Model the fold of this input.
Amino acid sequence: MREEKQRFSWTPRTELGRKVAAGEVTSMKQVLRSGTRVLEPEIVDVLLPDLKEEVLEITSTQRMTACGRKMQLRAIVVVGNRNGAIAVGVGKGRESRDAVAEAIRDAKKHITIIRLGCGSWECGCGTEHSISQETRGKSGTTEIVIKPAPRGIGIVAGEVARIVLQLVGIKDAWSFAKGRTRNKLSMSQAAINALEKLSHLKKGKDGVEEEKEEVQAPSESQEESRKEEETSE
Done:
């Protein structure tokens, strides 16, 4: 019902928006595979209607103009659906409400989908409660390492990293960071950069997102035939 209401009240302005409104594109993964940039936040509202947001920080900024100093508020917001979708956005406004709304719109334009899993050798339950393997991310001078943890450990991380991991849907993980860890924007961007490396989508030569193919070990018959060919040569 919410999706139908959103489609009815929204007038698309881009080709991707018109395809989403017409029902030709039905998932965020299709958008990522096409490599098309999301310019309308309403596209994400339709494809991911269950997004949650968390305000990381609201600070005041000053800018000199011809009329004097201009005061503004800057908001940093993380959005996610607790099922693989995550993004961080920055917005400015005269009031905190306007700054937060602008940050949410900015985050929706940069949404990404990451892959969850169970990569801890101590667990092996096979459910998507953690990440599949250790990953590292960086933003400026801020670096973060995220490791899979067994079920029941919880999220052992700093405030910003914990919020990002919770919103993406991770329930158990270890992490540690170094550099400018007090900078909440850099910390959130570094965490998302690390999570993006776990994604099952990658950019091809033409910039189009493609699925990674799983590398399977050769079977016994294939191995025997390979040895016979080497012997004959």
Observations:
- The longest strand covers residues 52-65.
- Helices lie at 2-9, 15-22, 28-34, 41-47, 96-108, 159-168, 184-196, 220-232.
